[in-house]
Amino acid sequence: MLRWSCVCVLSCSRINVFDVGLYGGTLFVISLQKFFLHTLTQILTFKPQLKVSDAVGMQWKWSFAKTCPLLTSLYRKLFVLFSVEELMAHLQQVLETHEVNWQHILSCVSTLLVCHAQAQHSLKDLLTRLLSNAFEAYDLESMITAFLLARQASLEGPAVFMSYTEWYKLSFGNASSYHGNSKKSLVFLLKFLSDLVPFEPPQYLKVHVLHPPYVLTKYRPFLLEYVSLAKTRLADLKVSIEEMGLYEDLSGTGAPAQPQCQAQQDVEKAVSLFEKTGRIPANVMEASIFRRPYFMSRFLPALLTPRLLPSKPDPRMSFIESLRK
Q1: How far is CA 74 from CA 33, 59, 130, 233, 318, in A?
Q2: In terms of Cα–Cα distance, which of 289, 131, 162, 141 is closest to 215?
Q3: Entry pTM
């Protein structure tokens, strides 16, 4: 396994060559930009020994906080002469035209997001282009690149980028999603997710099972096949999903609530959402199909806990009646 690349054994004095202030007016800006972009490209393509499958399993180690400080310092120096849009465009060009070092690509993305608030918007645009191309051309490279970049961004926390759960639901959770217009697109997505299963960290498998992509009823067997595969993998990893709550935090931070407490929290959240929208939340409907053990043994008992009923139906009573129908 690669621990550090050559850039991380450089001394601080050596990377000072990239301090723009050293050059004053002795070099044209365009010459410096060419030099900096060339250097950035060399870093991003240095010894591309890690496979995509390695990146899927290891990228949690490459967040901004866990990356060699000398490398993040070098990135920041190289970013100085460019706008976020220019840097993101160069990153895309490198991804499309070179074999890359995934550790450097992803740590570079993390550094850009942490150091530039505008990078979030530019990354969202890039992810949209990648997914659009993936489903238009059934291009696996665009697909895996989008997933890796979205996951990397989510590692930096909600102040920097949306959670992976949110991104996944926004991208694949409704009828207008990229895969929603054809059986071929759905099969492409599910085969892609299935091929990732042997390499996936459990937190991503949990997201895929708990928040499955939108499918038409007639194509549900395809989805059930993937969910079964993902659950089998989680069982192999000794990770329980049946006792997880509908609204449980999947980020891995904080201690999980006890099953009974989590079920009560789920009921309160579901009733609150029902009161606001007038509709049964999608999480509850999904659980009634894909997570029957939890739904029947935890959620329903918490929902139907005996209590003194009000004289007029309250949101909880209306929710129960709507669910019964």
Answers
A1: 15, 20, 27, 39, 58
A2: 289
A3: 0.77
Look up residue 58 and give its amino acid: M
The per-residue pLDDT for range 223-246, each reduced to its tens digit, is 999 999 999 999 999 887 766 777
Apex 202 CA angle, 273 and 5, nearest 5? 120
- Burial string for 166-199 (b: 16+ CB within 10 Å, else e) reads bbbbebbbeeebbbbeeeebbebbbebbeebbeb
- Token duo for residue 55: 């990146």
Which one, of 231, 31, 56, lies nearest residue 149 by Cα? 56
Write the DSSP assignment of 94-140 as a string of letters: HHHHS---HHHHHHHHHHHHHH-TTHHHHHHHHHHHHHHHHHHHT-H
Q: Match 């949209």 to its residue by tokens.
A: 128
3-state secondary structure of 68: coil
